[in-house]
Amino acid sequence: MDNFELICPAGTPAALRAAVDAGADAVYLGFRDETNARNFPGLNFTRQDVADAVDYAHARRVEVYVAINTYPQAGNLGPWQKAVDDAARLKVDAVILADPGLLAYAAKRHPDLRLHLSVQASAANVEAIRLYRDAFGVRRVVLPRVLTVPEIAKLNAEIDIETEVFVFGGLCPMAEGRCSLSSYATGLSPNKQGVCSPANHVRYEQRGGALASTLGGFTINVFGEGEQAGYPTLCKGRFVAGDGAGEGPAYLFEEPTSLNAMDLLPELKAAGVRALKIEGRQRGKAYIAAVVRAYREALESFAAGRPVSHIDLQAMVEGGTQTTGAYTRGWR
Amino acid sequence: MTASLTLGPVLFNWPVDRWRDFYARIADEAPVDTVIVGEIVCFKRAPFFAEAMGDVIERLSAAGKTVWLASPILVGSERERAAMRDLVESDAGLPDGGLIEANDMGALALLAGRPHAVGPTINVYNEATLGWMAGRGAEAVSLPAELPAATVAVLAKAGRELGVETEVQVWGRAPLAISARCYHARAHGLHKDGCQFVCGNDPDGMPVTTMDGQPFLTVNGTQTMSHGCLCLAAEMNELVEMGVSRFRLSPQAMDMVRVAEAFRAVLDGQRDGAEVAAELGGLIDAPLVNGFYHDTAGALRVA
């Protein structure tokens, strides 16, 4: 039985080299513009950077995927179509797309280009996945983080394209690509601009002994003295639900936590999952190297029938806590 | 295409008697053209409404309304899939003009090749995607709430060329997100599987406020909505000029007949949109917002 493929993030050329050297089977990245869902300042790749990345990775038998996974702007399809054209010209191994119009363009213009369906398309059922396969020839689907492992197993039993699932890193509690929370608070959205809870709308305010973090003027969290302050990602904030008579502010949507599904490798393999994805194109090269190395070790242990329980990623997780997220029913 | 008013599905978990009475009054009194029914937020709620569905469709249809059925927003489990397949097959049984509105790509897949509608929780952001959907049988597309005016204009124009009607939500809290997790249950210390249907306690959703006490969002089970009530009454004329031909009112726990009458008067050129916004704003315990349309934060109101 083939081992899982390990799909790793890179926001910079240095991170790409770190991921390749640490044992990635493929590295995914984005161009430096609004065509990808991690459109952050100082991040991402020029065309020349991608050419160099492909050279570096291919020399080491590692693949390169380009995420072009925001939704092209009406009346301005050019940048997204050009991104697909350039990815094909630069001989990347796959493009990761979400928008049906762009998938149609890629399938028609570049019939040999391998298409993966982005998590941003949120294809959560057999019928949806077959549609992307039949209409555009999509070869792999990155599953949204709404399914349990048993649901993934049932799904894989009925589809004949590969599935890729997130195993580590940041965790959207909402169905990806179907969330306008950031847009509501700031005007900038994952689908349109490729950003969520953008830094230029974040403020930190000292309030007596407490530190408040705000997004678009809305308080996302208030940290008391001695509490470690985190970045105000909207869905990881503390809010008051209902009339306030309850227990007070709580992490209503999700705690500041990281997904880590390493303990689920046997279940994910039995469920027919082909590839495991690590989130974090915004992360530095040291983080990437550590996480990729740990997962490579885990996959080798798993393939050899050895336990993975000794592999510790505690230092790499947000808020110091880990979750298996939607993969287990109790999360719901 | 003449401009028409659509009443979107009730998104909240109302007791079935209230739900049935609501539609009876809509049938008798509300000047809307299309009424879309169906429980699209939570699979667990659907059985409560199933018993009344036939009566509601018949009542609305007898009153001259075109009735559409909406498919669920999030379809993951086997049981949800089975329900989606059944729903998609039910369009033949609808009265004249009845369509299924797909709210998930799975339902869209099953509707290929026959007339259908595309709901606002399917991502239609550009003319290429709109064209692809038109080619598969979409007759009307309800645009996502977060689209700005410039995008709406391009899509409305493309829609006219393609023979697809475009729709924009002009009233009601905006749907912002959907999840496998139930936040209503979570806020009550419960799990989705044992939720005790606590969402039924909040006929207009559960308010979510910041730690400063600033109203922010609304939780409706697995769905997260805006706190602000989206209102584009003052933008209606502009939308009509763009070629938008359908205007969606999303039900809130308020006098929706009065809302429908007000928007009808704007569409008919009998009332000023800004004046209608001012009147309706006094009927709901939330600020009116239109920021998405004006290409800024959705929570804002742009004069």
From TrEMBL, chain A:
User: Which sites bind [4Fe-4S] cluster?
Assistant: C172, C179, C196, C235
Listed PANTHER family: PEPTIDASE U32 FAMILY, UBIQUINONE BIOSYNTHESIS PROTEIN UBIU
Q: Can the keyword 4Fe-4S be found in this entry's annotation?
A: yes
- UniProt xrefs under SUPFAM superfamilies: Thiamin phosphate synthase
Quaternary structure and interacting proteins, as annotated: Forms a heterodimer with UbiV.
- Native organism is Azospirillum oryzae
Note one Pfam family from the annotation. Answer: Peptidase_U32
Q: What is this protein's record name?
A: Ubiquinone biosynthesis protein UbiU
GO BP field: proteolysis; ubiquinone biosynthetic process
Report the family membership: Belongs to the peptidase U32 family. UbiU subfamily.
Q: Tell me the cofactors it needs.
A: [4Fe-4S] cluster
GO MF, one annotated term: metal ion binding
TrEMBL record, chain B:
Source domain of life is: Bacteria
Any one Gene Ontology biological process term? proteolysis
Keyword vocabulary terms for this entry: 4Fe-4S, Hydrolase, Iron, Iron-sulfur, Metal-binding, Protease, Ubiquinone biosynthesis
Question: Would I find Iron among this entry's keywords?
Answer: yes
Q: Which cofactor does it need?
A: [4Fe-4S] cluster
**Molecular functions per Gene Ontology:** 4 iron, 4 sulfur cluster binding; metal ion binding; peptidase activity
UniProt key word Metal-binding? yes
Pathway(s) where this gene product acts: Cofactor biosynthesis; ubiquinone biosynthesis
Q: Which residues bind [4Fe-4S] cluster?
A: C42, C182, C195, C199
Question: Partners and quaternary state?
Answer: Forms a heterodimer with UbiU.
- What is the documented function of this protein? Required for O(2)-independent ubiquinone (coenzyme Q) biosynthesis. Together with UbiU, is essential for the C6-hydroxylation reaction in the oxygen-independent ubiquinone biosynthesis pathway.
Homology family: Belongs to the peptidase U32 family. UbiV subfamily.
Q: Which NCBIfam families match?
A: PRK15447.1
**Would you tell me the protein name for this molecule?**
Ubiquinone biosynthesis protein UbiV
Task: Give the originating organism.
Answer: Azospirillum oryzae
What gene is this protein a product of? ubiV
